[in-house]
Specification:
- The structure holds 2 protein chains of 2 kinds.
- By secondary structure, chain A is mainly β.
- Helices cover 0% and strands 54% of the residues of chain A.
- In chain A, a hairpin with a 7-residue loop joins β9 and β10.
- Chain A is globular, with a radius of gyration of 13 Å.
- The model of chain A has no long low-confidence stretch (mean pLDDT 93).
- Chain B is mainly β.
- In chain B, β4 and β5 form a beta hairpin.
- Chain B is globular and about 40 Å long.
- Classes of the chains: A mainly beta, B mainly beta.
């Protein structure tokens, strides 16, 4: 079945440093989504990428979808303590199957 | 955005008892809801897709007789963990898409229910 691998599993940075998490799917995706889960909370939708090579920005967050629609990345510029949490990518396969397969997530901690 | 409410947030039960978790879409109709399970510091594993008015679709390896799903209305899905055992202790989260609200593909998650089986 479809697998989505995400690295790194953990990342600790100093406030102000940049952060990147990467996702790679075993199959071509119709779209990929990114979620953030704060400690003790539930996942919250950040963005969806659909087009090959797509790049989207949300303030300090930059999301990319690979040309082959099998990989994606999330880059945070100048991290802040409010960025702490686990970032999950979730890939959706093609066809009418709307099932999302989540990566294992990257736990980001920020040292003030 | 759309709101999904889940209840209870926490539940502790004795081994062998059954526990029901409710998932409600508060401001939209959800013909399909998804139930996930999350172990500490791990990813979300899809357990089943709950379909209003029909049987749920379970993922491979998920026991349908142990995790009973009922989706009796367009705004409510329930997950019942039957004869719970300590290994069932986990964080259960439901989610739904707002198909009618101009579906963006976004999954709206409930707050989650942390089950502890003693």
């Amino acid at each position: 079945g479809q697998q989505v691998m995400q690295i790194p599993q953990y990342q600790h940075v100093q406030e102000g440093e940049d952060f990147t998490t990467y996702c790679n799917s075993s199959t071509t995706l119709s779209n990929i989504q990114w979620y953030k889960q704060r400690p003790g909370g539930h996942p919250v939708f950040l963005i969806q990428l659909v087009k090959s090579g797509e790049v989207k920005k949300q303030k300090r967050l930059t999301f990319q979808f690979g040309e082959a629609k099998k990989n994606s990345s999330l880059h945070i510029t100048a991290t802040q303590t409010t960025d702490v949490g686990t970032y999950f990518c979730a890939g959706q396969g093609g066809g009418s199957n709307y099932k999302l397969t989540f990566g294992k997530g990257t736990l980001l901690t920020v040292n003030p | 955005g759309a709101v999904v409410s889940q209840h209870p947030s926490w539940v502790i039960c004795k081994s062998g008892t059954s526990v029901k978790i409710e998932c409600r879409s508060l401001d939209f109709q959800a013909t399909t809801m998804f139930w996930y399970r999350q172990f500490p510091k791990q990813s979300l594993m899809l357990m089943a897709t709950s379909n209003e008015g029909s049987k749920a679709t379970y993922e491979q390896g998920v026991e349908k007789d142990k995790f009973l799903i009922n989706h009796a209305s367009l705004t409510l899905s329930t997950l019942t963990v039957t004869s719970a055992h300590p290994e069932d202790s986990s964080f259960y989260i439901c989610s739904a898409r707002d198909w009618q609200g101009g579906d963006t593909g976004e999954l709206f998650f409930g707050e989650g229910s942390r089950l502890t089986v003693l």
